[in-house]
Write a structure and sequence with these properties.
Blueprint: H1 2-9, H2 18-32, H3 35-43, H4 50-72, E1 78-80, H5 84-95, H6 100-119, H7 122-128, H8 132-154, E2 157-160, E3 164-167, H9 173-190, H10 196-211, H11 243-270, H12 283-300, E4 305-307, H13 311-316, H14 322-337, H15 339-342, H16 347-361, H17 373-389, H18 392-409, H19 418-443
Antiparallel strand pairs: 1-4, 2-3
């Protein structure tokens, strides 16, 4: 078995070990397992069966992550994307008034289009055309973004009508659970102890039990996964040629493409698997894994699949190959049958992992030449738009737009590739369509 894993994942060549890879996969699972709770909660507002959604979420995550593990051989997990599931539930089924079957059909069509774009190298071409300065900025923005997620999950940062964000209530146990986990994790890192992030999560969870915020399962921890029959392959073809279907599919394509691209570039760069231009040889395979994952996920009954930024926590713990993703997928398989046990880990206990990883990911900011306004401003906008808009995709949008406009207007149009021009035009059209849609709804 050891020789097979070595041959498959080239562990020695990637300077890693089986133990390190399995541990990294477990940590990735712990930092993203919240999706098993959140995704069914969001999508069930459309009328979909919540129990079936739990199983569909887990199965789609397992399939897509194994694709990334065995085909692309990258330490990146995939699951139904946050933001994309909200668009599915609250925009397509809410504001637009379509059924969840219509929304699933749109996701299926998006997946098929992505497979074709990947096959003809269009997605890879787009990724490779992203300017290097933005590739350096993307990990920084993602680092700040996931740090914000960690702080928010712990209640350290909360929303505020007056100031947008504010310091949380320190009388809440979740704040102290997170701080204890953060301190433990940091001290263990300083002492070069392997598995520091996992140990921090375990210690924080135990502290939560002591405080009474985490309750041990009082029933059997083993259960049979609910059936996905109520939502399996429930497609609706009545409106596939409508303008609204076109808008929905384009929006899903747009957000999924750049969320996935941003995550891939950020996580792979931190793993040291990308070249000096931010590219990596498994790019096409990674994008194909994402596209196929979305297509299969829609058949199973869940929203768009995307690469998960939480994978950075596993990379920070030493994950370097697809074996990390195999480990993560195995954890989700276990979660299907041991959900009460795995899901007892509170969000506050996983927050320190996200904060520590955020620290690691901002290091590439040193590569950016901020003295050159034509590169510094686009990089800056890429970085700040991600946490401030709560979207990796929006950071890339405004980074790319500002890069194209500033370069052209300052006489440096040769720095802008044809692909970047096309992307910038599509971004403008998307913004105009969104603005038009909002104005139409307001007028109505």
């Amino acid at each position: 078995m050891k020789n097979l894993l070595e041959k498959t994942f080239k562990l020695t060549e990637n300077k890693t070990t089986i133990r390190k890879e399995l541990l990294a996969g477990l940590i990735t699972f712990l930092t993203m397992s919240y999706i098993l709770i959140v995704n069914p909660s969001i999508l069930s507002t459309t009328g979909m069966d919540k129990d079936a959604l739990f199983t569909a979420t887990a199965l789609a995550t397992i399939f897509a992550t194994l694709m990334m593990a065995l085909y692309a051989k990258l330490p990146i997990a995939q699951a139904p994307g946050m933001g994309l599931n909200a668009f599915f539930a609250f925009t397509i089924c809410g504001v637009m008034g379509y059924s969840w079957q219509f929304a699933l059909t749109a996701v299926f069509i998006e997946g098929i289009i992505f497979i074709l774009l990947t096959f003809f190298n269009v997605r890879e071409l787009i990724v490779k055309s992203i300017p290097k300065v933005l590739k350096d900025a993307i990990p920084v923005g993602i680092g700040l973004f996931i740090t914000l997620i960690g702080l928010k999950n712990a209640g350290i940062v909360v929303s505020s009508p007056a100031t947008l964000v504010a310091l949380g209530d320190f009388s809440q146990h979740s704040v102290w659970i997170a701080f204890l986990g953060l301190i433990v994790t940091a001290v263990l890192f300083v002492r070069n102890i392997n598995g520091s992030i996992l140990i921090g999560i375990v210690v924080a969870t135990i502290f939560g039990i002591i405080l009474g915020d985490v309750t041990l399962p009082d029933t059997s921890i083993i259960s049979t996964p609910p059936s996905i029959a109520p939502i399996f392959a429930q497609f609706e073809w009545d409106h596939i040629l409508s303008f609204n279907m076109l808008v929905v599919v384009f929006t899903l394509l747009f957000v999924n493409l750049f969320d996935t691209v941003g995550t891939l570039i950020g996580v792979v760069s931190k793993a040291g698997l990308a070249d000096e231009d931010g590219n990596f040889p498994q790019m096409k395979k990674a994008l194909f894994s994402d596209a196929l994952g979305t297509t299969v996920g829609s058949i199973l009954g869940t929203s768009t699949i995307t690469a998960y930024v939480e994978s950075a926590s596993g990379v920070a713990s030493g994950g370097r190959t697809g074996l990390t993703s195999v480990s993560t997928a195995m954890m989700f398989i276990l979660a299907l049958f041991f959900a009460p046990l795995f899901l007892m880990v509170p969000a506050a206990a996983t927050s320190p992992a996200l904060i520590i990883v955020g620290l690691f990911m901002i290091s590439s900011v040193a590569k950016i030449n901020f003295s050159d306004m034509s590169e510094g401003l686009p990089a800056f906008l890429t970085i700040v738009f991600m946490p401030f808009t709560y979207s990796i995709a929006e950071g890339i949008v405004f980074g790319m737009l500002s890069f194209a406009f500033i370069k052209v207007c300052s006489g440096k149009h040769k720095d802008v590739s044809t692909t970047v021009y096309v992307i910038a035009i599509l971004f403008l059209l998307k913004i105009i369509l969104d603005a038009s849609h909002i104005m139409t709804n307001a007028a109505g």
